[in-house]
Amino acid sequence: MLPNTYHLISLGVSMKLPDGYEAHIVPRSSTFKHWGLIQTNGVGIIDNSYSGDHDVWCMPVYATRETTVNKGDRICQFRLFKSMESPELTEVEHLSDTDRGGFGSTGVI
Q1: What are phi and psi of 58, to 5 degrees?
Q2: What Cα–Cα distance (Å) separates residue 57 from each residue in 19, 24, 60, 89, 99?
Q3: Distance between terminal CA atoms of the chain?
Q4: Which residues of 25-55 are buried (b: 16+ CB within 10 A; e: fewer)?
Q5: Is 36 helix (H, G, I), strand (E, B) or coil?
Q6: Any idea which residues carry the catalytic annotation?
Q7: Which residue positions in the chain have pLDDT lower than 70?
Q8: How confident is the model at residue 108, as a pLDDT?
Q9: 0.70 exceeded by the pTM?
Q10: Mapping DSSP to helix (H, G, I), strand (E, B) and coil, where does residue 5 land?
């Protein structure tokens, strides 16, 4: 991989997750140190509907330096989580809370 390039690395696995679960793909703690790779979407979430014969799990990465990932290199890991239930939302004209001063601000100077 050349520096400053995007790549979709095949993880070489497809599977059907249990109903109600999703997998979160994240880099290993040594991935950046060894390969200079950053996962481009922060966390890759794979739901149990991604389970066809050609639905191969991948890790989207940005290469910060010239590097090579070989088959069998351990660049990521995954954890299974219960999928979030769909919340019931209520549309309103105005919110009742006091403004805090904008995005990223606690309002304290």
Answers
A1: -135, 160
A2: 18, 11, 10, 32, 42
A3: 45
A4: bebeeebeeebbbebeeeebebebebeeeee
A5: coil
A6: 47
A7: 100-109
A8: 58
A9: yes
A10: strand
